[in-house]
Amino acid sequence: MTQHNFEEAKDALLHSLLSRSYDVELQEDETFIEEIEADPKLSLIQEEDRDILMHRDAHFSGSFDVMLDNYREGRRGAVLPIESRRIEFLRLQEAKLGKNLAPYLLTGADAEKVAFAKKMYYDLMALAEGTSKDTIAQAISKLILSEEDEIENALDKVLLFGNKAIPALLELLQSELFLDPLFPGYGKAPFLAALALGKLRAMESISSLFQLLKHESFEAEEAALKALVAIGEKAKEFLLKIVQKKPFTEENERAAYALLQFESEEVALQFFQILKELIQSQSKQLSSPFAHYLTLGLKALPDAQKKELQALAKNSKTPKDLLT
After folding, report:
1. How many CB atoms lie within 10 A of CB 138?
2. CA neighbours closer than 13 Å in the CB half-sphere of residue 8
3. How much is the pTM?
4. Is the torsion defined by CA of 109, 110, 115, 120 positive or negative?
5. Which residues contact 9 (CB under 8 A, 6 or more apart)?
6. Burial of 2 by CB count in 10 Å (0-12 exposed, 13-18 middle, 19+ buried)?
């Protein structure tokens, strides 16, 4: 196989990994519940412990000790909303039992998902540590697998490829699978892709970056906003089109929130126009975050409109706390 064909094969494998999905119907296995209820040693087990065991096996090679180190030190892999003492409790329970807790607590579907995640790790490591150096597939794989002290270097390596890296970064950004914290990257790899796309000023990523704002995570929000601001004028134009679409929905709200990062006269004038429409129609949106974001974005309003704004604040139709 020629070097060119070898690199194409690696790119194809990366594409396969980034476009994969995991969609299996999780069915409750009554057998493991009966075993737990019958065994007093396991009587204090909680539902969240299944997640702990799955993450232990997927990310930490089945080691409670390694997992504990991550959670005690607040490392990148500490993604579950749990306290380290719960992991310690399970470690002690497993020691008392004298055997692995996973077969007791995980359903067949749980175990299958863990195996799928571990296979993803194996494939990504094969790409990252392969003998072929300096390929996009290798750089993206290292970015996904990077820990805290490796992220900046991994991002820099991806950015060296310039626009050639955009298709793979877009796939990573749009991947539902890599937003799942059980899979490589702890559910945060798309956020790194967003940052890289912003640095590359990839206009084709604007819509996907906007969709990332739906994700209920501070890291996702921060990455998406940074990227949109880095892309600049084209991102602002996209958001201005969204913010004025009717009927007003959560999309308008997200666009208004994002536009707060683009403080400008153009944004302020558009916000003021929408706000006047909401007040005139006595829209239910006046009591929503949307109206609040609109008022926050009025700082750059020209002087002529500021006088109009003062008059609007005194209007009996205007909620008293909206423009105060």
Report:
1. 21
2. 5
3. 0.86
4. positive
5. 1
6. exposed
Close Cβ partners of 45 (under 8 Å, ≥ 6 residues apart) = 36, 93, 105
Residue boundaries of the structural domains of the chain: 1-22+121-231, 28-106, 232-314
On whether the CB atoms of residues 25 and 109 are closer than 8 A, the answer is yes
- Each residue of 282-301: pLDDT tens digit? 888 878 899 899 999 998 99
Instruction: Tell me the C-alpha distance between 81 and 61, whole Å.
Output: 20
Among the listed residues 107, 121, 11, the one whose alpha carbon sits nearest the alpha carbon of residue 58: 121
- Please report, in angstroms and rounded to a whole number, the separation of the first and last CA atoms in the chain: 70
* Nearest CA-CA partner of 104 in 25, 45, 182: 45
Span 90-133, pLDDT tens digits: 999 899 889 899 998 888 999 999 999 999 999 999 999 876 67
Tokens (6 digits) for 268: 């302020």
